């Protein structure tokens, strides 16, 4: 260092003969020492080291001068003044720890090219670049900027891919709108690519997707809310971030992130962009892979959180909270819908249900009003539950990078599972398909019979009971699969058996419990069985008793029925009805199942909490905050007199916490081994589809046990007729025409 000087962002102030304060925007530092003060007086950017030594001859020894300079340099307080930058620019970069000479060199080596799309213009940006001493080129660029009025604008994706394949880093910016978008900066081979971002953007723009697919629009709906000042400020900010990338060689604020600035509120948010290992541009998709032999691993039960968990809810939340974003997330919001002061009912919604395909106005309307939802005994449990459901739904949507095999049912032979062995529509339902589908019920759509010779895509599942790979139609395993439309509509995918977990074992257990829950509900509901009440006091659960009292305070009675059947796994349904009127009793219900009856009870009660926000007491009787026609019709017409099976069977003793002979284990692995044996004893098979997405990391599975029944209207022969007789609940099976005519609507 020939001519040293305090860095331009530092103000040196001598306060005493042996004390020096270095002041900057970031605070102050006190340095002490008489020799330090003497040297500091000559650090003016004019005098060389030799000059300083000469001026201090006889005052400070030369070696001491060199020592002081070395200490100041090591602490990055001084720098070499030989550069062409202005004082303010030098101060900016020195505050970031960059020498002015490095700034000059990196700026001179940058060759930036600008691309514009839509209504975006480059003139202001070029002017600002020229003022900042940054060259703009028309070819042979080593860095690019894409300015666009919308990230989905025509041509942007193609240019982004071209730059990626040419190994050219680039920054993208949307300077228009009251909320501007800045970034990410894409670095080929090091960050997520633009395709990774686009996949998330499209997933969060349901209305535009619908409008484009139906031909209502051809281009994106561009944000028009801008001022000349907001455009200039946006471009200036973009240029600053570009310069930081050029000078520093990286930009942690915009690599794998984008920033939004809302000029109406000055709110600034960061949105994480996740690199997708399965991406066709920057990843390595493997659509031919076959599921491995699933061997359940040890997963000790460390916490009880709506089920047995291996980590706390807080840990899970911190691990996945980066997925919350209306732009780049799969959880586009996390919003409490119960009163914040309510210590019993914690319910959160986590954005639109991504499992609902918006290919018509009805499904669009359903999607806009349907949200992934989470509940829990505590607020953090409810948040994690909502995030988990959003991830579960997202993971079940077909995207084209899933393992699949093109063949026919007959060609697969005994390794193929017929979709109706899982759906269980009766021959009469299929014959009356037009009548069923004319109801336009979202829950009870009857598909066409499968053409067993047709070439369709099949998803591989691992059969735990058969110890081999089996196949189900991909259109049954994933929402929005292209095989499942028009004349090829041969199955109705649903979320039954789908679950998320911190480990594969957690997810499989939760998925199987859902199958038991819904099978138990179907047997009870469609046979209109009177079932025993659960003795809540026997559980020694203050939460259950407090919740019952809460319902009482709202002129409601709450009780829980025991639906446990031949599996022996505790299955309950919580029910709440108004007690201040005999008609329009606003009856809500929520089921749950679990090996631990205490957990099954908690899950049913918290699920019931999820239903309660629709019951707005400020509205007149018969009006609600939810407008699904089937649900509203039930609330308006059902009462305990015309639906007597909802009331407990008072002829039978109440079930208590000790009524269930289910073994207790300390490891989820042992729970699963027990469940597999239960399935075998019922004469059924258990298959597992791993839907875990590499870009998410939370385990998601779909557990399939053909023969266990969804609680929607599925009337084929089997357990719905056989179990009531087997358990002694009915003397003989009902006929299909005798089943409950009301289809379940949740």
Automatic annotation (TrEMBL):
One of its GO terms (cellular component) is ribosome. GO terms for molecular function: transferase activity; ubiquitin-like modifier activating enzyme activity. This is Ribosomal protein S12 methylthiotransferase accessory factor. It comes from the Bacteria. SUPFAM superfamilies: Activating enzymes of the ubiquitin-like proteins (SSF69572). Pfam families: WHD_DUF4423_like, YcaO. Keywords: Ribonucleoprotein, Ribosomal protein, Transferase. Residues 374-746 form the YcaO domain. The lineage of its organism: Bacteria, Pseudomonadati, Bacteroidota, Flavobacteriia, Flavobacteriales.
């Amino acid at each position: 260092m020939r001519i040293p000087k305090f860095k331009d962002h530092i103000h040196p102030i001598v306060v005493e003969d042996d004390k020096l304060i270095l002041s900057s925007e970031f605070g102050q530092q006190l340095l002490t020492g008489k020799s330090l003060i003497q040297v500091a007086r000559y650090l003016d950017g004019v005098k060389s080291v030799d000059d300083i030594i000469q001026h201090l001859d006889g005052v400070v020894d030369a070696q001491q001068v060199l020592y002081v300079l070395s200490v100041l340099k090591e602490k990055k307080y001084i720098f070499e003044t030989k550069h062409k930058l202005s004082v303010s620019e030098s101060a900016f970069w020195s505050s970031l720890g960059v020498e002015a000479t490095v700034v000059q060199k990196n700026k001179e080596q940058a060759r930036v090219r600008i691309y514009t799309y839509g209504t975006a213009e480059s003139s202001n940006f070029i002017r600002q670049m020229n003022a900042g001493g940054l060259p703009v080129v028309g070819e042979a660029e080593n860095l690019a900027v894409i300015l666009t009025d919308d990230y989905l604008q025509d041509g942007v994706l193609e240019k982004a891919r071209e730059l990626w394949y040419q190994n050219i880093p680039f920054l993208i910016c949307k300077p228009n709108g009251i909320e501007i978008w800045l970034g990410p900066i894409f670095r080929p081979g090091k960050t997520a690519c633009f395709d990774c971002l686009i996949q998330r953007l499209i997933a969060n723009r349901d209305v535009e997707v619908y409008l484009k697919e139906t031909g209502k629009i051809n281009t994106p709906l561009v944000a028009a809310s801008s001022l000349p000042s907001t455009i200039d400020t946006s471009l200036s900010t973009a240029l600053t971030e570009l310069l930081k990338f050029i000078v520093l060689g990286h930009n942690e604020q915009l690599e794998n992130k984008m920033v939004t600035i809302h000029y109406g509120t000055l709110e600034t948010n960061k949105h994480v962009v996740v690199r997708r290992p399965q991406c066709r541009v920057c990843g390595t998709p493997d659509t031919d892979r076959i599921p491995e032999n699933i061997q359940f691993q040890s997963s000790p039960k460390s916490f009880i959180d709506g089920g047995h968990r291996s980590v706390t809810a807080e840990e899970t939340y911190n691990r996945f909270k980066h997925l919350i974003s209306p732009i780049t997330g799969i959880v586009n919001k996390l919003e409490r819908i119960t009163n914040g002061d309510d210590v019993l009912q914690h319910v959160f919604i986590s954005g639109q249900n991504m499992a609902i395909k918006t290919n018509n106005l009805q499904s669009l309307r359903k999607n806009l009003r349907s949200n992934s939802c989470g509940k829990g005994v505590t607020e953090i449990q409810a948040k994690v539950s909502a995030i988990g459901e959003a991830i579960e739904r997202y993971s079940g949507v077909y995207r084209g990078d899933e393992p699949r095999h093109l063949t026919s049912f007959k060609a697969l032979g005994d390794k193929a599972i017929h979709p109706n062995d899982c759906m269980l529509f009766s021959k009469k339902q299929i014959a009356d398909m037009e009548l069923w589908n004319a109801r336009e019920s979202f829950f009870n759509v009857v598909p066409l019979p499968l053409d067993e010779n047709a070439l369709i895509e099949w998803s591989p599942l691992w059969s735990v009971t058969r110890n081999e790979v089996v196949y189900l139609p991909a259109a049954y395993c994933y929402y929005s699969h292209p095989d499942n439309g028009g004349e090829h509509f041969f199955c109705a995918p649903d979320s039954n058996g789908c679950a998320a977990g911190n480990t594969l074992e957690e997810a499989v257990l939760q998925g199987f419990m859902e199958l038991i829950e819904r099978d138990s509900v179907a047997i009870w509901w469609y046979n209109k069985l009177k079932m025993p009440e659960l003795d809540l006091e026997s559980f020694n659960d203050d939460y259950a008793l407090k919740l019952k009292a809460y319902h009482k305070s709202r002129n409601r009675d709450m009780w829980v029925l025991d639906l446990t059947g031949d599996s022996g796994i505790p299955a309950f349904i919580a029910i709440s009805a108004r007690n201040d009127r005999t008609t329009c009793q606003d009856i809500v219900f929520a089921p749950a199942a679990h090996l631990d009856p205490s957990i099954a009870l908690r899950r049913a009660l918290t699920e019931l909490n999820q239903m309660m926000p629709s019951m707005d007491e400020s509205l007149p009787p018969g009006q609600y905050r939810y407008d699904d026609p089937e649900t509203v019709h039930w609330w308006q017409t059902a009462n305990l007199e015309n639906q007597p099976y909802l009331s407990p069977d008072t002829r039978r003793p109440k079930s208590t916490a000790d009524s269930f002979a289910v073994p207790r284990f300390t490891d989820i692995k042992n729970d699963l081994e027990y469940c597999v044996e239960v399935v075998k004893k019922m004469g059924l098979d258990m298959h597992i589809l791993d839907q875990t997405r590499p870009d998410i990391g939370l385990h998601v599975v779909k557990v399939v046990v053909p023969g266990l029944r969804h609680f929607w209207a599925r009337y084929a022969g089997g357990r719905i007729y056989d179990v009531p007789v087997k358990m002694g609940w009915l003397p003989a099976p009902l006929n299909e025409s005798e089943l409950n005519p009301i289809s379940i609507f949740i």
